[in-house]
Amino acid sequence: MIIELPRNYTRTSKGRYARVRSDGILEIKGYGDFYKIMSDITYVLKGRKVCQYCRREVSPSKMTIDHLYPREFGGVSITNNLGPACANCNREKASLNEAEYRVMRTLSCKAEKDRFYKKRIAEKNRRKYSQHIKPGFDIPLEWIDYWSVKKIKTPRDSSERRKSKNYHKARSFIRKNNYKIPKPVVVSKNGVLLEGKSIYLAARDEKLLSIPVIVLENVVVLDN
To answer: Residues 161-202: pLDDT tens digits?
Structure first.
C-alpha cells in the first residue's frame, strides 16, 4: 500500500535520518522506532492543535495520537491509520474504529453508548479469536498481503526480544487460535520489518510458512 506522506520531511539525529525524497519515497536509515517517525509525520500532515473527533483546540503538548483502526484488533502505526486526538476522545474511543466511534458520539446517553461499545467489541473479539475466520483483523482487507516468513528481513535484537512479554503473548495467541497471528506485521518495500518484531519472531518460531503483512510501497530502509 501507499502511505500518506508530506512533500517535504526530514528528521536527523547522530547519523540517523528519515526523509521524504523528491520522488515521494520515505527513506529511513538508522532509526529503530518506526512509531515515532509515523507519529511525527502524522502531525506534519494533520496538525497537532485540533482533535479530529470533537474539533476542539488542544495544547500541542497534550495532543495524543489515535489509531483509527485500533491496535487491539490489527491496527498498525502508519500515517493512513493515525490521527491527532485529544486525550478524552482517545480514551472514550478505546478499541472502536473511527467509523464506529463517530456513530457512538451521536448517541444521546451514556447507557446507549455503553451498549453500543460492548456490542461492537464483542463482535470484534468473535472475529479475532474465531478459528474459522482468517485473518480476523478490523482493518481494510486491501491493506493486507501474505509473504513467506523467509522473505522478511529479520531484526537484529532477536535473542533479547524473545524474552519479552509481547513475544510470549504472540506465541501463545498463535498456538491457541489455529495459527492465526494477532495482527499483521509492517514491512518496507525492500522487505525490512518495521513493526511487529515480536509477532514475526513468534510466527517464525511456530514454523508458520507465511504471515499477513502490510507492505509500504513508498518506504525503503537502508542498511545501517
So the answer is: 888 999 999 999 999 998 999 999 999 999 999 999 999 999
Q: Residue 139, Cβ neighbours under 10 Å: how many?
A: 23
What global pTM score does this model have? 0.94
CATH number of 141-218: 3.90.1530
Q: How many CA atoms lie within 13 A of 135 on its CB side?
A: 23
- As given in the structure block, the three cell numbers for residue 97 are 474504529
Q: Are strands 16-20 and 10-13 parallel, antiparallel or unpaired?
A: antiparallel
- Between helix 165-176 and helix 197-205 the angle, nearest 10°, is 50
Helices and strands: H and E segment counts in the chain: 7, 10
Cα–chain center distance at 62? 21
What is the spatial distance between Cα 17 and Cα 11, in angstroms, rounded to a whole number?
Answer: 5
**Which residue type sits at 184?**
P
Domain range summary for the chain, segments of one domain joined by +: 10-129, 141-218
Looking at the DSSP bridge assignments, the partners of residue 122 are none
Residue pair 194/152 in contact by the 8 Å Cβ criterion: no
